Amino acid sequence: MPKESWKIKLKAAQPDELAALLIQSGASGAEIESSDFLSCYVYCTEAEARDYIKKAVQQGAKFSSIEKLLEENWVALCEDVWKTRVVEKFTIRLVSEAFEEIMQPNSENQILIIPGTGFGTGHHASTELALKLLQQEEISKNPPITALDVGTGSGILAIACEKLYASKIIAFDNDFCALRNATENIHLNHCQNIEIFAGEIDALFCRKYDLIFANIYAEVLIAMQKQFSALSNTGSRLILSGIRNDLKDAVFNAFMEGNWTCLRAEEKDGWAAFLLNALS
């Protein structure tokens, strides 16, 4: 059976995370089309394309369609999938291997990411919103000395924080596969101030942080409200992202009932994010 170019459309709750998984499995690229749809591009036999669909469904995705592509369309689509993203001052570029960095001189305004199982390539609205809030004056006018990245995924937010503020950062996750991806990206971007931590967040209560950021499920954010308070000083800032619009009021109310005030709120493509300040 000959190899051909295929476009597979899928519905997923976390399309950015599924896109990274499919790319790691051999897909040539994946395009986030909305808050819950993505298209995966593969060059393989039809039977192998069906295997990609099975893998996605096993991860909780729903199959929408499969389309055979003309060769000239395939080249253009792959170039679009891997194009750079710009979020405020940052240019985010996906690379397939660490050695590509040699051809891309590192700078304080560029973030290089190798897609893997760690969430966060800059293509998903929730990651973009968190990156945008990280660069606002409510943080930049009083740069954080210490920061905590909860659910670091690919490490993109920790990398951005070091490039912006030279903070001492703990990048925390309980997914060891994600942490391997984060470690790879941290080294790729020549970061020196990021410490990887695997385990339970309660082990971090021995210190407090000037800034905490978390791009994770809304339900988890609500459940962690008291833990975020315990990790914060008066005046510490907290970025919450990964919040679907239908859950933004629930997240907002949960934190307003705690010791937090809202400094800024952002929305994009069906997702919301908040920048909060700890009152006490």
From TrEMBL:
Gene Ontology BP term (one): methylation
GO molecular function, one term: protein methyltransferase activity
InterPro entries: Ribosomal_L11_MeTrfase_PrmA, SAM-dependent_MTases_sf
Transferase listed as a keyword: yes
Keyword list, A-Z: Methyltransferase, Transferase
UniProt name for this protein: Methyltransferase
Organism the protein comes from: SAR324 cluster bacterium
